[in-house]
Amino acid sequence: NARMQYGDVAATLANIDKMQPLQPLSEEAHKNAVVSWGQGVKGWGIDAAVCKPIYHWAAGLPRLLLESHSKFSGTMSLANGSVKAVHRCFGEFQKRASSLYEIRPEWFPYAVSCLLISSTKLKVSNPDNRIPINPDWKKFLGVSWGEGGTFRQAAGHSIGSYNSKDELFVVPPIIFSDDVMKSLMVEDCGNGKMKKVQHTLILPSQLHPYFTEAVAEQLGRSSPTERGKQFEKPFLYAVYARYLLAYWGNTDSKWVPLTQVFEGAFQQQQEDVMKGYEVNLSGGVHVALTELLYSNAVPNAITYFGSSAHHDAYIYCRTVDDGSGVVWEGAVPLQLRHGRPKSYDELKPQLMTIRVPKLGKQKKSDEGTKAPPAPQPEPVRLLLSVNHKQRDPIRDEEKIVMIDADKMSSIAWLWLLAPGEQ
């Protein structure tokens, strides 16, 4: 309670409380809101080409959606300036959004976890649940939160908002740029001295490809092949983010259940297949440009080869028996599919892998030294077929598990943005 006075006039008692961000709007509600907000305002509106990107950048938060109609670069707003406005206005809009939802350095561990949870659409059943944080970052926490910070507290600090209907904690990606991330990576060591956090693990732009001004300028101009490439790495970083969150929640072992990493992204009838696996991605994401064979997959990490390889990527897994004995350990392939899903006949070759040939003693003949034998295909134990939207499992084929990318990453909307598409 507070008593407000204006000169000799005392105002009535008022209850003052911290307001949390308003609930996110749906895409349809956003379109309706634009009409409502603009009643009687000359020149108000939103260009169809930027409506969807603005919605996803702002995560549907009304304050940021409304802010996109502000005049940037003098006379142009991001909302009704067409795709051309992105080039001129995106950077200013991003800075303005970050200033509206300012994050303090002492909130860094919780803010990063909230971003990862939001970006990967991990379910949050209760806003009073504790936020899992990197144990190595606990020393950065300020006194305002201390141990055991909750999603309700995060919402109170305007880091994001809790969507009770969908059980999601939503952080607008536009407020959390790489520059913001780097500005938070400091520790107060006392006596006014600051120390930088050495390893970020994941940058925001690695989860959201249209996070940088240079890339945002290409919005809607990319070919289907280029859009596919823009999707692949961010999805793998989403897998890595899910792994980190699972590990931070229980640091007893670096091996976590595969079902926990892909929670919500596979169909229930394939859960029994996934249950038999654990995954260790503690080594992070590795991008390989040469030697793109199964045997070149990096242990305890994600290895990305790209579409030119037999398999696009690998994650390092193992199976254990009931007595916790390791039965098998090795790489599980991911096939990252954009556009039309592959048929079973097209996926069948992916059920075999290629290794580096085992070289024995080379035999010599009149023709000289013989070349080493060609790599021999071997069956894979499991294939994760990643599609940008849900696809039913293939009947009678348990080795292929269908993964719905839209259920665990925030970049599936990019598929809808090709030249001439809305």
From TrEMBL:
Stretches the record annotates as Disordered: 356-379
Protein name from the UniProt record: Bodo-specific multi-copy gene family, putative
Source organism of this protein record: Bodo saltans (Flagellated protozoan)
